[in-house]
Sequence to fold (227 residues):
Amino acid sequence: RIPVMVDSSDFETIVAGLQNLQGRCVVNSLSLKDGEATFVERARLVRRYGAAVVVMASDEQGQADTLPRRVAILERAIGLLISQAGFAEEDLIVDPNVLTVGTGIDEHRRYAIDFIATAAAIKRRHPLVLVSGGISNVSFAFRGNDVVREAMHAAFLKHAIAGGLDMGIVNAGRVQLYDDLDVALRDAVEDVLFDRRDDATERLITLAETLRAAGPGEVVVKSPDAW
Fold:
């Protein structure tokens, strides 16, 4: 009686899950990577089992990493799901790909901006379609520094929700309140997320090393219990 999410990269496993679960499920995920014919065939079968579906921003050329490609792929997928597979907009969840920023690679600098812009574009055109994403992906460049990563997640979540994000994959016990973030850390994180300075990544790396050297006892991070 709860909406179990059936998650597998193997479609036969997804079908087996749908055949063995009561109630409505959510399928994670479908994409256009194997072409439109396979996409529509699988979508029709998913709909026969009454499931909602997560759609990834990937196509025959691979994962979308720019704003135009993200929007184009998701628009094409939504169109096929509605016109050929019989889905209602409210049964669709799109994932525009949360990708890692702060890597030092110029092509990655707009990843967070473009995710939020894609969510907003989809919401304008399809208000009932839901938008999801794996939030922790945005901070992988800072693995090993949880204070910085959690600040990035809090800031990204706040702005992504304002842009149209409906649901995110997060560690709910570690999500910090945006308003409780250290101001210097918050500003440094947002400089990276929104590509506000050419030296934003270097500045955040320097601050991250300072926070790591200070030790966890020097950084005040409120527990979600304080909410």
